[in-house]
Structures are given as structure tokens and as C-alpha cells.
Amino acid sequence: MSSEVKVFYNKCVENSFCENKSDLSKSSCSVKNKNQINNKILYKGILVYAEQRHGKLANIVYELLNNGRKLADELNTTLSTILIGYYDDENDIKIKSQELINNGADKVYVCNNPVLFEFQDDSYTNILVQLIIREKPEIVLISATNIGRSFAPRIASRIYTGLAADCILLKIDSETRNLQQIRPVLDGKIMATILTPDNRPQISTVRSNIFNKIKTKKERKGEIFYFNTNPKLLKSRTETLGFIKNVDDEKTIKIEDADVVVAGGKGVGESKGFELIKELAKILGGVVAASKAAVDANWISSMYQIGQTGRTISPKIYIACGISGQIQHNVGMASSDIIISINKDHTCPMMQIATYALKGDMYEIIPKIIKKIKLYKKT
Ligand SMILES: Cc1cc2nc3c(=O)[nH]c(=O)nc-3n(C[C@H](O)[C@H](O)[C@H](O)COP(=O)(O)OP(=O)(O)OC[C@H]3O[C@@H](n4cnc5c(N)ncnc54)[C@H](O)[C@@H]3O)c2cc1C
């Protein structure tokens, strides 16, 4: 770990106009004038929310940092990130912070408190709002996960700015410093570019598996700022009574993280047909997924759905079995490295975008592929 990382404790992050900047816990200031916080010139830098669950950073954080770094370089500004949660070992915080720095952050803000162990809308919103008001980033990037989707709109409304949700591409207009926030609309039929031209910060939630998520091991230098908030801001109107883990057939590999995904669609014909899909996925060391039509037919749970209203993935290999490739499905898998389509209809969109299009009945083709792989594995 780099020894050059600077660490600051307990700096006020509530309001940069506040005279009591040195000790946040004594500060009680709050922003009351919405014109004050929407003065564009005062806003500089990019802030990424470093989402974690029970201490583990979400994969999308690395994607946001990679993208945030590029945007920051284009704007010739700094990239900060905020880690909210609870780590009982100080060393863990340093390791996580250094990981964030290595992946592009110049500054890491840490808010560590036992009451923040589980995500809560109220307290997490309060903390991020405080930091935004104090640091005035011109862009805030938040993951389009359940957590991000839940608290990003609260943050935007609290600081009188706009929010572009579920973005799949972010670009900078270097002249105006406006962020072009691009996302599918009208059932994915067109891509809309959303601007927040008058207010700052520009807040976007960003879908996972869109940007490069390669973790870097290169040591970078950065600063770590610890801060405590006013205890009343840590209060929440909700309470987490327990945490039930999603029990997944694949147990260890999440669809979003899998290198190989084998998906079944309406062409599977019946729920039993997914046994064949599972067998192919297993022999390839991959996971099962599905189209909405298969989910709607109750052949498989909605947690496996890929697409606009499901998950977004970018595996090395995506095998679509009996999936026609409608736009609402394709927005969730189009960035896969290799697309293999097995379909009776060679004219359907999935066969057109496929790297390898196998025309025929999946019940004839898949057993042949499985047989070949078994043979190959034996030799
Ligand atoms: C607002 C909105 C949101 C949506 N969100 C999503 C989403 O997130 N994800 C999603 O997937 N869809 C979504 N949809 C639905 C989407 O429009 C399509 O209806 C759906 O993706 C079709 O699924 P499919 O390709 O499995 O079925 P179909 O379009 O019916 O295609 C079945 C395919 O299977 C082939 N086939 C049939 N039998 C066989 C066989 N034995 N062997 C090989 N091939 C065979 C056929 O030739 C056909 O191409 C959404 C729709 C709307 C309006």
C-alpha cells in the first residue's frame, strides 16, 4: 500500500460556507437557499458513490471509477469517491480506500459508523447530501442498483437538481461541461440524451456491465478524508430487522459476473426445457438466464431475466436459445463479447446480431454441443 496517502479526520462536510468547518460533529448548518447551491460556477470535480454491501465493494464501483476517471481527465478535474458503511477494523478501511484510489479516485471520503452497516435511505441520503453541499461536485455517479435507484432520486430532490436514471453511456460536452446522459427510452426503441444544463450537480445512475470494470493493481496516490456526521443525520425512519440472502441455484456465480451465460426464451417451450439449458450452462462453467417471455410463462424466476426490465450483462460468451432478440432483451446483453444464437428462424434479430448463428431446433443442437464438449473434456 502506498505510504503517500494523506488522511484527514472529522472535517466538516456540511457546507463550504460554514465557518465551523473544522469539526463536523459540532456543525448544525444546513443549506436553505436553493439558488446558492445551484450556482454552477462553484461546482467542480466528479464524485462516485462507492456502493458496498456488508463491507464488500460492488463490482459496478470499478466501472463507475473507470468512467469517472475518463470524464474527470476530459474536464481536467478531480475524481472523488465516498465510502459509507461500517468496518470495525481500521485497516479494512485503508485497504478499501487504497483500492478505490488505485482504480482512479484522487480523494476518498469515508463515513464509518456501526449504524451504517446496513443501507438505509434516510441516513445514506443525509450523508451524501452533506458531502455534495460541501464539496460541490459537478457530476455525481451512482450505481443503478436497488440501492442507487432507491436513494439517488431523494438526493437529487433534496439539492434541487436533476437525475438521469439508468444511463448506459456518458459523454462530456467540453464547451459547456454538460454531461450527456444517454439512456434507452420508449421500450428501448430510441436512445435519449438527457442534459441537466442549468443545475449542478448532474446526477446519473448508471447500469452495471456497461463500462470497463477491470480492477487495477497499480498503486496510485490519493487522499483519505474521514468524517463523522451530526448524529441526528444518522437516524432513519426504517429499521433493518434481518437480511435474507437470495438462494441461487448457481450459488457462487452471479449472472452479472459470469463469463458464460446460457439463456432460454419462449422457444424453450416448457419449464422442463430449462433442464437442458442448465446442463449446457453447467458443462461450460456458466449460469442460466432467460428472456421475459420465458419468465412470464413461469418457466423460470424473474431474477434470471435479462433486458430492459431485467439485468444487464456483458459476459465473454452469451448463448441465446430460442430467443428472438427483441430490443428490450438485447439492451441487456448486446455488449457480450461473443453471441451465439440457436434459433429455428434465421431472420430473427438475435440471429442477425449473433457472432455465430446456429439455425435449427435447440432440442437437436444443444445435446450435440453437450456431447462434443464432454468428448473434448475426456481427451
Ligand atoms: C416495457 C417492456 C419491457 C420489456 N423488458 C424485457 C426484458 O427486460 N427482457 C426481455 O427479454 N424482454 C422484455 N420485453 C419483452 C420483449 O419485447 C419480447 O417480447 C421478449 O424478449 C421475447 O422473448 P423471446 O425472444 O423469448 O420470445 P419470442 O419473441 O416469442 O421468440 C421465441 C423465439 O424462439 C424461436 N424458437 C421457437 N422454438 C424453437 C426451438 N425449438 N429451437 C430454437 N428456436 C426456437 C422462435 O423462432 C423465436 O425466434 C419487454 C417488453 C416491454 C414492452
What does it look like?
There is one protein chain. This protein is of the alpha/beta class. It has two domains: 6-234, HUPs (Rossmann fold, 3-Layer(aba) Sandwich), CATH 3.40.50.620; 255-378, Rossmann fold (3-Layer(aba) Sandwich), CATH 3.40.50.1220. It is built from ten helices and 18 strands. It has helices at residues 34-37, 59-75, 90-102, 121-135, 146-158, 274-283, 292-296, 327-330, 349-353, 362-378; strands spanning 6-9, 46-49, 52-53, 56-57, 79-85, 107-112, 139-143, 163-167, 169-173, 178-185, 190-194, 202-206, 223-226, 260-264, 287-290, 317-321, 338-343, 356-359. Strands 1-13-6-5-2-7-12-8 form an eight-stranded parallel β-sheet, with helices on both faces. Helix 6 (274-283) runs parallel beside helix 10 (362-378). The longest helix is centred in the N-terminal third of the chain and has 17 residues, at 59-75. The protein is globular, with a radius of gyration of 23 Å. It starts with 5 loop residues before the first strand and ends with a helix.
> What's the order of the H and E elements?
EHEEEHEHEHEHEEEEEEEHEHEHEHEH
Number of strands: 18
Bound molecules: flavin-adenine dinucleotide
Strand content: 15-25%
The fold-level CATH name of the largest domain is Rossmann fold
For the biggest sheet, the summary is: 8 strands, parallel
> Which structural class do you get from the secondary structure elements?
alpha/beta
The CATH homologous superfamily of the largest domain is called HUPs
Distance from N terminus to C terminus (CA atoms, Å) equals 45 Å
Gyration radius, rounded: 23 Å
User: What's the total helix number?
Assistant: 10
Low-confidence stretches: 1-37
- Supply the CATH architecture of the largest domain: 3-Layer(aba) Sandwich
Number of domains: 2
Overall average residue pLDDT: 87
- Give the overall silhouette: globular
